[in-house]
Write a structure and sequence with these properties.
single chain, alpha+beta, S-adenosylmethionine decarboxylase, six-stranded antiparallel β-sheet
Amino acid sequence: MDGYGKELILDLHECNPKKFTRYYIKKFFQELCALIDMEPCKICFWDYRGRPGEYEKAPAHLKGTSAIQFISTSNITIHALDELKCVYINIFSCKDFYNIDASRFCENYFEGKVRHSQTIERI
């Protein structure tokens, strides 16, 4: 990695929505950070927790849990969509990591299939 950093973008389909809870997403961040040797910092969640009426009215592409795991070298973002059974992940770091390891872990953790993967070198 020659530039500032890189971002791995993953679109996973046919995932297990039982893993889309705050508990499992927090565990996902912990395990992923350990695997790619990143130092986790603060986690922030956004979902419809405590607002069931809003969840019922929301379109399918908004129903789920989003979270950001700040890491000492940037962040990992996830959007897990219940009805679509999809997970969208961005891993952005100025510290290098192995894309293949991260991608396989995400796929296995959410029991889905990577439909799109892209790496962007940040310069």
